[in-house]
# Entry
Amino acid sequence: MDADSDPDTEFCEVVITADDPRWLADFTRTLVEERLAACGHLVAPIRSIYRWDGAVRDETEARVSLHTRRALVDVIVARTNQEHGYEVPCVIALPLTGGNPAYLAWLAAETATSSAGRGDAPRSPA
# Structure
């Protein structure tokens, strides 16, 4: 997408990990209900290997991939930081550079816009 694109129509995938799959599923449901994401694809378990506090850790976690608008990423990051149990939760946004036009239209309709509030299109399965 070019630099002149409207962030309300640019889409991304936001990845969040957590140690509790049930919490992550509930959190994902809340984000979808509030139209901060059109959907979330949850995968559990995943194996995470990372360095924390000077030691390499090898842990079981869950991961969700949220489909949303780029304009909503800051709200999702703030919300995650507020509600997540980790000191530094993993929340990253990856740009979507294309896709099924009908799916992208559904994603736009199902997520809040920064200026207009809520989408009003009929709900469709992700």
Q: What stands out?
A: The mean pLDDT is 88.
